[in-house]
Amino acid sequence: QGHSVETGGGSVQAGGSLRLSCPVSRNTDSSACMGWFRQAPGKEREAVATIETPGHTTYADFVKGRFTISKDNAENTLSLQMNNLKPEDSATYYCASPVYEAELLPCAAIFHNPGRFNYWGQGTQVTVSS
After folding, report:
1. CA-CA distance, 41 to 80, in Å (whole number)?
2. Can you point out the beta strands (E) in the chain?
3. What is the reported pLDDT for 53?
4. Cβ burial 44-53 (10 Å sphere, 16+ → b, else e)
5. What pLDDT is recorded for position 103?
6. pLDDT value of position 27
7. Fewer CB within a 10 Å sphere, N or C end of the chain?
8. b/e string for 70-107 if b means 16 or more Cβ within 10 A?
9. Which residues contact 47 (CB under 8 A, 6 or more apart)?
10. Count of CA atoms in the C-beta half-sphere (13 A) of 43
11. Tens-place pLDDT, residues 82-111
């Protein structure tokens, strides 16, 4: 889709914070819904958080109160602020937007369907140690 890879991952101690970001291209079609997904080895990819115009957000239960998704239209970036990280948050994190046929659907309709999203890059690794 012409996007750079996700950035901001790293290794942190439990309770630490990371901020993940990915660029949103000005020269490609945008999606009303976009978000962050993650996948740990041996596990299925799962939604973490999504955001859509005019700013509605949806979070997985396991990150509520700890993670915040945001879009900066001026800087053309999608970010995920991750606070109070836990070892179970260790995974590769990806930016994503709906496939063409699902572009007009609200985030809530496809939140639990990772297969209906295109993943922008190869992801950024987050490792949280005890």
Report:
1. 21
2. 10-13, 18-23, 33-39, 46-52, 56-59, 67-72, 77-82, 91-98, 117-119, 124-129
3. 77
4. ebebbbbbbe
5. 85
6. 52
7. C
8. ebeeeeeebbbbbeebeeebbbbbbbbbbeeebeebeb
9. 35, 36, 37, 58, 60, 111, 112, 114
10. 14
11. 999 999 999 999 999 999 899 889 999 999
**Average pLDDT across the chain, whole number:** 91
Residue matched to tokens 């009303």: 32
SS3 content of the chain, % helix, strand, coil (to 5): 10, 45, 45
Tokens of 91: 């995974």
* Token representation of residue 109: 């309709």
Count CA atoms closer than 13 A to 103's CA, side-chain side.
6
Tell me how far apart the alpha carbons of residues 100 and 15 are, in angstroms, rounded to a whole number: 38
Name the one residue in this structure whose structure tokens are 């890059």.
Answer: 121
Whose structure tokens read 């999203």? 117
Q: What is the mean pLDDT of residues 66-94?
A: 94
